[in-house]
Amino acid sequence: MSTSQRQPPGEALRFEHVTLEFPGSHRPAIEDVSLQVDRGKVVAVIGPSGCGKSTILNLAAGLLTPTRGEVHYAGRPVTGVNSDAAYVTQQSHLLPWLSVKANIALALKFRSVPKDEREERVAHWVELVGLTGFENHYPRELSGGMQKRCAIARALIYDPSIVLMDEPFGPLDAITRLELQQELLNIWREQNGTLIFVTHDLNEAIYLADEVVVMSKGPGTVRRTIPVPFERPRRIGSLVESRAFSELHNDLWSLFAAERKGAAA
Ligand SMILES: Nc1ncnc2c1ncn2[C@@H]1O[C@H](COP(=O)(O)OP(=O)(O)OP(=O)(O)O)[C@@H](O)[C@H]1O
């Protein structure tokens, strides 16, 4: 069953006046953050280093608890680890002693999915993320891009209703990034779930997202939420050539640069 069938339109994630202070810190990491992400939307979070982007994902995943305010998922307060959420962190965190297919199958195994079904779904995802022929390899035998592909398949295979990604393609070279961005777009068409990702790459934010949340620092808060008006399915190549793309890129860059300057002051 695809996520689109599972998810009626409406609210997925909501932050209500959320402040998070780490113990011993003299100022909050984020302060009074309110935002809403609707089901089926792809949202990019951008902002200067240290403005609290990862903190937002950690709160959505239920790995952190707000000092003030509330985080809601699917209409209920998040009070512990959010088991509806799949989280792809900056490092791929593949288990080194397991093969590619065993890593990808992990979430299905935890959910006691029968072996036959497990194997079928793993084979589908191995193909989808372009790892055919590498099923029995171990993480150390894969390139950085292949490890990322494996981590993405591992996160998406159990059809989570929301996926959180922290700089999903951060350490990769430009060509591999482009390939994976296009692959994620294609996969997302099939899944149609809710995706929130953090990036420093403005192009990536525009290619992938329906909305871009721009944060400011000191302490971190939401400065603006900007809609991305491009139709789907999107082809990165043709998108980049359009005038609307450069205009949106310029707008985001002005906001982003102002925040960086503010952060440095
Ligand atoms: N475990 C922690 N203990 C204390 N302070 C922390 C902790 N984790 C993060 N912080 C602080 O909280 C603030 C927000 O951090 P966070 O990692 O969310 O920012 P970010 O926007 O994701 O940064 P970057 O873009 O550099 O990854 C920063 O000032 C950081 O130093």
TrEMBL record:
Record flagged with keyword Transport: yes
Protein's name in the database: ABC transporter ATP-binding protein
Keywords: ATP-binding, Nucleotide-binding, Transport
Pfam families: ABC_tran
Location of the ABC transporter domain: 13-242
Signal peptide range in chain numbering: none
Keyword Transport: yes
GO molecular function per UniProt: ATP binding
InterPro entries assigned to the protein according to its UniProt record, in alphabetical order: AAA+_ATPase, ABC_transporter-like_ATP-bd, ABC_transporter_ATP-bind, P-loop_NTPase
Domain of life per record: Bacteria
